[in-house]
């Protein structure tokens, strides 16, 4: 899959308002009331990621979850990264 161009990244950033959008990765931190809620969220993200065959880097620190999404095989952000980020935003609602 090909990397998104700078203009495509800028366009994608509009639909990913809470994400940090960089050419090399999409990144967002989610905060929850406690560890259990954070883990519940991570389990939902894991199921969605597995169904898309695309897996984010996940860092869990008590009630905070940092997600970093990029296409390892392409070396940066592709359309499937944006799609997974949008899916994760829906899970977080």
Question: How are the secondary structure elements laid out?
Answer:
Layout: H1 6-15, E1 20-22, E2 25-31, H2 35-52, E3 57-61, E4 64-69, H3 79-92
Antiparallel strand pairs: 1-2, 2-4, 3-4
Structural write-up:
- A hairpin with a 2-residue loop joins strand 3 and strand 4 (64-69).
- The chain has a 4-stranded antiparallel β-sheet, with helices on one face.
- It has one domain (6-92): Gyrase A, domain 2.
- The radius of gyration is 13 Å and the shape is globular.
- 45% of the residues lie in helices and 23% in strands.
- With 93 residues, the protein is of the alpha+beta class.
- The chain has helices at 6-15, 35-52, 79-92; strands at 20-22, 25-31, 57-61, 64-69.
- Helix 2 packs antiparallel against helix 3 (79-92).
Note the main attributes of this structure.
93 residues, 45% helix, alpha+beta, globular
What does this entry show, briefly?
By secondary structure, the protein is α+β, with helices and mostly antiparallel strands. The protein contains 3 helices and 4 strands, in the order H-E-E-H-E-E-H.
């Amino acid at each position: 899959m090909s990397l998104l161009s700078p203009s495509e990244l800028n366009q994608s950033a509009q639909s990913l308002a809470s994400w940090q959008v960089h050419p090399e990765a999409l990144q967002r931190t989610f905060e929850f009331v406690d560890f259990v809620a954070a883990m519940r969220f991570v389990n939902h993200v894991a199921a969605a990621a597995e169904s898309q065959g695309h897996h984010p880097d996940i860092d869990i620190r008590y009630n905070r979850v940092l997600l970093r999404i990029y296409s390892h095989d392409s070396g940066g952000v592709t359309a499937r990264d944006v799609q997974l980020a949008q899916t994760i935003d829906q899970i977080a609602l």
